[in-house]
Design a protein that fits this description.
The protein is mainly β. About 15% of the residues lie in helices and about 40% in strands.
Length: about 140
């Protein structure tokens, strides 16, 4: 009985969580894996052409990378936010996290691959790609 209560509580929390997508474009200036932390705890690593998704509770969360510029997000339940890892090459090779508008992110995310499971460090990171793949159906010629 206690287990059933815990399972239903977990489902209720996850169904009201915000999804935060963190990615780096394929054309990134650096080709190495970069670890991203959420609220000071390691989440997952990302590199050019890859994406991962965090499930976070409502409120303010800070995403950061080592020796880089962090970003703070205010997320609402059942909403999505998008964060891109870029590189500032003007002074030093510094990683910069920045919030991206939904329209721009949807364009960027089209050809990205979900991070491998061995790059995930937190239970807040979804193990499988939550993006809905476009449903493709084969067309059949009618045989009359």
């Amino acid at each position: 009985m206690r287990f059933a209560w815990f399972a239903s509580l977990t489902f209720a929390v996850l169904s009201h969580a915000a999804e935060v997508y963190v990615y780096e474009q394929r054309s990134a200036a650096v080709a190495s894996w970069v670890e991203v932390a959420c609220d000071g705890q390691p989440s997952a690593s990302v590199k050019g052409g890859y994406i991962f998704a965090l499930q976070l509770g409502e409120g303010r969360h800070t995403l950061s990378v080592r020796d880089g510029v962090p970003v703070t997000l205010e997320v609402e339940a059942s909403e999505s936010a998008f964060v891109r890892l870029d590189w500032n090459m003007s002074v030093a090779r510094a990683p910069v996290l920045s919030k991206v508008p939904r329209a721009r992110a949807q364009h960027d995310l089209q050809f990205l691959t979900y991070v491998p499971k061995n790059k995930i460090r937190s239970s807040q990171v979804m193990r499988d790609d939550p993006r809905q793949p476009e449903q493709k159906q084969l067309k059949h010629r009618g045989r009359d």
